[in-house]
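note to self: dont lose this again. the chain is below, predicted strucutre after it. 314 aa total, dont forget to put it in the shared folder this time
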Amino acid sequence: MTGPPSQHTYRIEDLAHRTGTSVRTIRAYQDRGLLPRAERHGRANLYSDAHVTRLHQIAHLLDRGYTLASIRELLEAWDTGRGLGGVLGLVAEVEGPWTDEQPDRITRAELDARFGGPDDDAVAEAVELGVLERIDGDTDTFLVPSPQELAAAAELHGAGVPLSAIAGHLRELRVQVEHIAACFLEFTTEYVFARYLDDPEHRTDAHAAEAASLVRRLRPLAQQTVDAELARAMRAFATRHLRSHLGSGAPAEPRADTRTVVLPAGTIEAVERLVGAESVAAFIALAAEREVGARALDDLATTTGASRGLDEPA
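---
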């Protein structure tokens, strides 16, 4: 570890106090090669401001989720002159906002007005889901990470959808969206970012900056693709759903590829109670297509993971 001459020296207890670290942790970092040993001055082991900086770097990287082994590699790169700037720039790019939407604040009175009155249970559930975030020291105001999401909930509630149903739908939607995100990440990692992550020759500042630039360019693609596919699916499903409710009065698309499937009477009756007799066929068709789509995504993720595992050396 190199650095300018220090004007301060610290005994290990003082260093621990200065950095908010325990003496035991400092010694553990030294044993792992994360922190250089103290310099011997007479009978005393003294640490410098460079040690303070190093401990702050370790704490910063731990907060970002790095393991101690990864931190050691990064710090070795720093010590050999390769620098942390490019790597930390890449980390900042990945951990930064993935949307241009700006968070907002809303008071409890404004919240009650938008949703037709006070509902403590709904507010608690919104906080649990992260739609609202409490602000320390201010019990009357909430942070809204996504004003668009809150506005959508208000519109749905105003149209007659219960808040409990909106929350349940959001939970289900998040599972599906997180699945899509995982698949997109696997896809881009395999074909784009693997060389930066797996090849030691691509772990320079220049390559890290190149990877960060790719993140900026590819980041909008996931949302654009999902937007396009969602628009296509919504149009197809909404059209089919409307025609099923209008019945024979609306022209139906010819379906030469349809065939009869026998279902248990209990299943048909349960669906009838849920959506009405006139919507049974449409509901079952939509449910089946949704399940097929979900399983296709599962198969894609499993196949991708298995193929990557086969490529790895034993």
